[in-house]
Design goal:
A hairpin with a 2-residue loop joins strand 4 and strand 5. It is built from 24 helices and 17 strands. The protein has 3 domains: 225 residues, Aminohydrolase, N-terminal nucleophile (Ntn) domain (Glutamine Phosphoribosylpyrophosphate, subunit 1, domain 1, 4-Layer Sandwich); 292 residues, HUPs (Rossmann fold, 3-Layer(aba) Sandwich), CATH 3.40.50.620; 68 residues, no CATH class. 42% of the residues lie in helices and 16% in strands. The protein has 615 residues and is an alpha+beta fold.
Length: 615
């Protein structure tokens, strides 16, 4: 894993001030050095500059970037962030075509694949990636991003110059780019946040390469080309065949993602998704007489203060303990206290350059830092609920039939704290509805589906395009801020493509939530683990944390220079602070309730202060 950054202009000659522009490249990659500090490198020519900071996972000693190869006097250059899981097959094909490899890194494989197959070479990749290629022959710079947006890649155009980087902070180290916001920025943060419209970097004029797309910048223009999207077709496999194929895909995805030149660990929450990934990874390592490191997360005091609700019916710790009896793994329990959690709210904004999922982000950031002390690569159970239909909005009528994003049915909490004149100007409901309708219009239709199945398909598509990518974005920033590479087997595009077209009666077989996934894991987990009720990522129920939030939010409101006061009505926020807590009525998905709303406001204030933003 790595951080990448760079710039390009066809009306500039960077070599005339090469020392200056090399220093810009260094500044850009130093801003994202947390993504990997093992090796660094820059490349500069007349029209393009590329920089990279590397976390060594494969080919620890000779895989440094940028990688430059010459053909007929032209440079082909790549900087890359990610992992390719079908590298061996691609490499064998390229060797048969005469390519000679100087490294064992997948970076070189991607570059040669481009030199052989052009832009469509990206379709051959199975993995998580964001990379830039300079093609000296065609005089163009290309920015590629993986199918699900697991790896980030932001860009902007200022005049005739394209500037890009793994994170927005890298762009802001370029002399032409400054952080600014406009009303649409606020609509994203206050209406859709912590999700984002695809391609929207929230800051004014900052974009993100769309999922499954490539941005092509040449002397003539800038275009974005989609190379992958979901499609709808009839599922013809029987249920037995579907179970067997799903089981194969899961095992193959996990085993492919175990490939590494450093040890791989896993996050073990006690939920069915992380247990399946952990079990498959442990089985794979056991074949080589190795033991998997596993880590679980919780908060101090949760054993005393936990409150069961419809979204989080039970605690995870007992199920982690059951997993440890079933599998021989080297497990570490990690805990976060309340003040650490509150402090990490601000660090998580540093990591993401934006407000995020409040303490859900902050805790993951804290835990990733602890895991990095043991391992550089981890597997996670993210994405199974979006793909296999685990969330309440797949099952409960009030969510299922909502004519909006089902995780954000209630806009009242968001709007209730805003100044009335700003609320009237932003028109958040209209903005959110437009984003929702646009996504619904993009859902690939399957002729002949009844209304209920059509809605199931819409809910699945919404989850994959919005909710899943929000969680993947969270995972990348939280893990990479500590130089930890997180891999997501459930987000293998083959699994997504296959399960998207599986009928609901299979996904929820015999009325069991995620019944297909559970049946596919028969024999891997004990039934008491395989058929437990869903419980989401843990949050603290300790009242001490909420008191810290209330105190800090009061301080912000009392400071007239606090940028949050540009947005909110103090009296209305004080009502939120003094109202009884409700952990059972989330305002964004099942993870964020009243305390998370207060934490989100603190993050917005810190974000605006950090970047000196105003409206």
């Amino acid at each position: 894993m790595c951080g990448i950054a760079g710039f390009s202009s066809f009306n500039n000659d960077y070599m005339q001030q090469s020392d200056y522009w090399k220093s810009v490249l260094i500044n850009m990659r130093e801003s994202i050095a947390h993504r990997g500090m093992d090796t660094v490198g820059e490349y500069l020519n007349k029209n393009c500059g590329l920089s990279q900071t590397r976390l060594t996972i494969r080919d620890l000693y000779s895989g440094n970037q940028p990688i430059v190869r010459r053909r007929q006097g032209n440079d082909y250059v790549i900087i890359y962030n990610g992992e390719i899981y079908n590298c061996d097959e691609l490499k064998a094909d390229l060797i048969s075509k005469g390519y000679i490899f100087e490294t064992t890194t997948d970076t070189e494989v991607i570059l040669y694949a481009y030199m052989e197959y052009g832009i469509d070479s990206v379709k051959k990749l199975n993995g998580i990636f964001a990379y830039a290629i300079w093609d000296g022959h065609r005089q163009r710079l290309m920015l590629f991003r993986d199918r699900c947006g697991i790896k980030p890649l932001f860009y902007t155009v200022e005049g005739d110059t394209l500037v890009f980087g793994s994170e927005p902070k890298a762009l802001f180290r370029h002399p032409f780019i400054k952080p600014e916001i406009d009303l649409n920025s606020l609509r994203e943060v206050l209406g859709l946040g912590p999700a984002r419209t695809e391609g929207n970097g929230v800051f004014k004029n900052i974009n993100e390469v769309n999922y499954g797309s490539v941005v092509i910048f040449s002397r003539d223009n800038l275009t974005q080309k989609k190379y992958w999207s979901l499609d709808s077709h009839e599922h013809k496999d029987s249920y037995k065949e579907t179970v067997e194929h799903t089981a194969f895909l899961l095992k193959d995805a996990v085993e492919r993602q175990m490939v590494s030149d450093v040890p791989v660990c896993s996050f073990l929450s006690g939920g069915v998704d992380s247990c399946i990934v952990t079990a498959l990874a442990s089985n794979y390592l056991n074949k080589n007489n190795c033991i998997l490191n596993t880590f679980s997360f919780d908060f101090t005091g949760n054993d005393k203060y936990f409150k069961s609700n419809s979204f989080q019916p039970e605690q995870d710790r007992p199920y982690v303990d059951k997993m440890l009896k079933a599998y021989n793994v080297n497990h570490t329990y990690l805990f976060c206290d309340q003040r650490e959690l509150a402090d990490e709210l601000y660090t998580s904004v540093d990591a993401k350059d934006l407000p995020g999922m409040a303490d859900v982000d902050a805790s993951l950031l804290y835990f990733c830092r602890q895991v990095k002390e043991h391992n550089k690569v981890t597997l996670t159970g993210e994405c199974a609920d979006e793909i296999f239909g685990g969330y309440p909005w797949f099952h409960r009528e009030e969510f299922f039939n909502a004519d909006t994003f089902p995780w954000s049915i209630n806009m009242e909490t968001r709007e209730s704290v805003l100044k009335s004149e700003l609320r009237d100007e932003l028109k958040l409901k209209k903005y959110v509805k437009k984003a929702y309708k646009k996504t619904i219009s993009d859902v690939p239709v399957l002729e002949g589906e009844n209304d209920e199945e059509k809605r199931r398909r819409e809910i699945s598509y919404l989850n994959i395009k919005w909710f899943m990518t929000t969680l993947l974005d969270r995972m990348d920033r939280a893990s990479m801020y500590s130089g930890l590479e997180a891999r997501v087997p459930f987000a293998d595009h083959r699994i997504i493509e296959y399960i998207f077209n599986v009928p609901w009666e299979y996904k929820c077989h015999n009325g069991v939530v995620k019944g297909l996934l559970r049946d596919s894991a028969q024999g891997i987990l004990p039934d008491e683990l395989l058929y437990r009720r869903k419980s989401p990522y843990p949050k603290t129920y300790n009242p001490e944390y909420e008191e810290i939030l209330k105190h800090r939010l009061r301080e912000v409101l009392s400071d007239s220079s606090s940028p949050l006061n540009q947005l909110v009505d103090k009296v209305k926020v004080m009502r939120l602070i003094t109202a009884p807590s409700d952990y059972g009525k989330p305002w964004f998905g099942q993870l964020m309730a009243a305390p998370q709303m207060m934490a989100y406001l603190l993050q917005i204030n810190y974000w605006m202060s950090k970047y000196k933003l105003s409206i």
